[in-house]
Queue: 2 jobs
Job 1
Amino acid sequence: MRRVMIVGCPGAGKSMAARRLAEITGLPVIHLDRHYWLPGWVRPDPQAWRARVEELASQPRWIMDGNYGSTFAPRLSAADTLLHLDFSTFVCASRVLRRTLGGLGGRRGGELGDGCLERLDWPFFRFVLDYRRTHRNRDLEAMSGFAGNLLRFESPRQLESFLAALAARG
């Protein structure tokens, strides 16, 4: 496990899983949200974004969390392990609400770029509510050709068990 990609609906806990896995493995964490969003929640140029992800994915060791479907291919081709947090809409939506309301005006533990403070974003919340219906199949299709170790977790409890077992192995 040298290059780990963590994907799933917003609110599934990708960043938390990345931090926990980093504590266990010593691998560096790359939060894609931090690299994607420019100050004031401005989206980057698509070509510049893809080049940045390719640069990040070329590093020898990492844990990279975030979906960003347009950059699945370069990350999947570089990763040796893929964690798919395939949690229910209820779990993800409730976590997004809790995270948003509890962190308004903050930087979400350093996961966000400079000038991007936590905010209420109804279109984003709608995306979370619609993810399983509108984006999950696209993501599953992209993952279907992954040649490395694919680990799918359907509940936070499954993920926690995996991380605890990994930590116990030392």
Job 2
Amino acid sequence: MKISEASRVSGVSARSLRHYEDEGLIVPGRFSNGFRDYCQSTIDRVLIIRSLLESGLPVRLIREVLPSLTDGSDAGTGMVCAEFLHEVQGHRDRLAARIAVLSDQQAALDAYLREAHRTDL
């Protein structure tokens, strides 16, 4: 299918599909005229990529683990999964630390606003 149909079917913009290709996450086929040709397995891969990106994982990490998630083989899966899970845990921990800092900042702003409203009365 052409990029417009692949975009519609996957719910991912044509621009994102091109970006995934540029990042080496997908490799669509080509028609004789040079247009991209997306098969169902590529669309399935796009849906996995989209889900991982929406989870906040960086493209670098997705690129590393994607072959083991989409090739259907179990060879080396345990090692890849252990390393991947370790990376995901690290990413999650960094995210939790950022959330804690933002929560502290939000609490400080809330306190400031409460105090400001008190002095206005």
